[in-house]
Write a structure and sequence with these properties.
By secondary structure, the protein is mainly α. It has one domain: MFS general substrate transporter like domains (Growth Hormone, Chain: A, Up-down Bundle), CATH 1.20.1250.20. The chain is built from 25 helices and no strands.
């Protein structure tokens, strides 16, 4: 094996190179990364409280309440259907042109998607809006690569302990915005009652607020965010080479505005087949099974809340649904910020992940329990207590994602393939997010129809949870075990 091959296939961090002291986090750039992380959860959680009502309003179900969940699932899956086709390519592109240009493109796409969603009056228009956002949104994967770029093994768990802060903000503020500001002309006639625009487009206001925030994030990224990799070419040069059927071979000079040490010899990106190692495949499989269950549950939850009690739900309105989802997001963020790094040091990333997917079993069991209590006693203390327990259990489930992200670092063949490796895992995760919402929502719709087994959707979710538990056992207790065997 040649020296060049040794360099290209060298592990991301050799044990002999690991620092012995904790490296401080680079807060001058890390705070921007945290700020950017708010955009995606804020945008799509803004939609969650009012999508069931929006489906009813546009008339696509023709008054059939059992079909609402079906169309909600299709709508949510359309974003991920487009996302799965492009996320790997955006992530791999970031290894060549840099992380910053890809993030700017993604923010522009999400902004356009949200504005278009608020102006859409047909189911096709809603779907096209989400497809545009999904096709051009590579931000989540690339931002995760940036976190890996600017951290090492001593401070990465701490960094991922802060990552829940923006997700907490986004998943708390988004449902509140979407739930309280949807149909503003009806809800706040004294303020918005004279606005013909908001009467015509009753969901434009919450979508516009998300669009404004994303525009601010775009400006902050353009002026303050520094590049974290050495770009091998520019986007324009790459477009010209592709147009003339040339390759990546000739690279332009590295940018001077980067956070990496450019004096070091940089390894080269590897082809796709070289990236599909057993370790990368194991991490990707866990992303798939976790995302499949998580997104199925996330899709069913607001529909369950909005479905009439006699059909198996809770009969809650969008403002109340938004408040519940916001409380859930706040609890997730606070718990992870306070406890994740400590739990990681005590138990390791592997056990945290296995515990998280195992919590899916009691989470699913509580669905029929909550409805049974609502049928027997109405929406009282017992129902709210079970709702609180169910949402508390999702805290454990959500901690699977930072745990899996820690495995991405050691699974990547070398530093130059971090973006591509993260892209592969996110591509598989996006694939699971296509199947999860659409399948679970469709099964939910089928199960609440007269003459069908009302518990069918819960059997379906339970099978997903057991599948995720089995795959989680393939991971070692700690990512460092994989480094030891490089």
């Amino acid at each position: 094996m040649t020296a060049q091959q040794d360099d290209e296939e060298a592990p991301l961090l050799q044990r002999s190179e690991q620092p012995t002291t904790r490296t401080p986090l680079p807060w001058n750039q890390f705070w921007i990364i945290l700020f950017l992380q708010i955009s995606e959860p804020l945008s799509f959680q803004t939609l969650a409280p009012f999508i069931p009502q929006l489906i009813r309003d546009i008339g696509v179900t023709h008054g059939d309440e059992s079909q609402v969940a079906h169309y909600v699932g299709i709508l949510e899956s359309s974003y991920y259907a487009a996302h799965v086709l492009t996320v790997f390519h955006w992530s791999r592109l970031s290894d060549h042109i840099g992380r910053k240009p890809v993030i700017l493109i993604a923010l522009s796409a999400i902004s356009l998607s949200m504005l278009s969603f608020g102006l859409s009056k047909t189911f096709l228009g809603l779907m096209v809006s989400l497809v545009v956002g999904g096709a051009f949104d590579g931000s989540n994967s690339v931002i995760k690569s940036m976190v890996i770029d600017i951290t090492d093994v001593t401070n990465m768990p701490k960094a991922y302990g802060y990552i829940p802060i923006p997700w907490m903000i986004g998943t708390t503020a988004g449902p509140l915005i979407g739930g309280s500001l949807s149909r503003p002309a009806d809800r706040f006639p004294d303020i918005f009652g004279q606005s013909e625009l908001l009467k015509t487009y009753p969901y434009l206001l919450p979508c516009s607020i998300s669009t404004i925030f994303i525009s601010i994030a775009w400006v902050v990224t353009y002026f303050r965010l520094k590049e974290t990799v050495s770009p091998r070419t520019s986007l324009w040069e790459l477009i010209k080479r592709r147009f003339f059927r040339q390759s990546y071979a000739n690279s332009c000079q590295p940018s001077s505005n980067v956070l990496v040490n450019l004096e070091e010899v940089q390894p080269k990106p590897l082809p796709l087949r070289a990236l599909l190692t057993p370790k990368v495949s194991t991490v990707a499989a866990n992303y798939v099974t976790t995302g499949l269950f998580h997104m199925a549950f996330t899709s069913v939850l607001p529909v369950f809340y909005a479905t009439p009690i006699e059909l198996g739900g809770l009969s809650l309105d969008p403002p109340r649904i938004g408040t519940i989802l916001a409380a859930q997001g706040a609890a997730h963020g606070i718990f992870q910020v306070v406890f994740y790094a400590r739990l990681h040091d005590r138990f390791g990333a592997g056990p945290i992940h296995t515990t998280g997917v195992s919590s899916g079993i009691p989470i699913v069991v509580l669905f029929p329990v909550i409805n049974a209590l609502a049928r027997a006693q109405g929406i009282g203390l017992a129902v709210w207590l079970c709702v609180a327990i169910q949402l508390a259990l999702t805290i454990s489930l959500i901690m699977c994602y930072p745990s899996l992200a820690l495995f991405v670092r050691v699974a990547a063949p070398n530093r130059a393939t971090l973006g591509a490796t993260s892209g592969i895992t996110q591509m598989f995760l996006a694939g699971a997010r296509i199947i999860g919402p659409a399948s679970a929502a469709s099964v939910f719709s089928y199960s609440i129809q007269e003459g069908h087994d009302a518990w069918l959707v819960y059997y379906f979710l339970m099978a997903m949870a057991f599948f995720a538990i089995g795959v989680s056992l393939l991971l070692p207790r700690d990512p460092s075990v994989w480094e030891d065997h490089q």
